[in-house]
Amino acid sequence: MERKALVEPRAPRGPRRRRLRLALGVVGALVAVTLVGVVLRADPVGYGTVFWPVATAYDQDEARVMADIKAAAHAEASARNDLSGVPDTVRELGYAVTDVRVDRPTSVEGSLLMRVHLVVGDGQPGHPGEVRCREVLVTGSSGLEISSRRVDC
To answer: Contact at 8 Å (CB) between 86 and 80?
Structure first.
């Protein structure tokens, strides 16, 4: 008696299907890397990725300036035990500070939001100066935290 199967055996999968999966995987990885690169290039100083190919020479100058501002702000806030003198300290470094908003300035638990105008670049013929703006947030809720983000001037 002849026996009939309900399911026929599947033909073996060939190398064509494996190549298709590999190609789709490579394309997906390239798209993901490109999207991450676009996000990081938007503000490499804020994301802490100040290296080539993500950051330009201007971004590296901006990171150096922001490190100086953060150090001065931290020293001032720690010395006075409040945030009220931080904008003046940043102005003394030679940077324009605008739009200062302070919440509980005489308390270490307060917060300070200020916009800082930076001139980055050394002014040489191939590397002229460029004005950039950053919003700097200084909070004292758990220790002293200083963060910033790039904004339009």
So the answer is: no
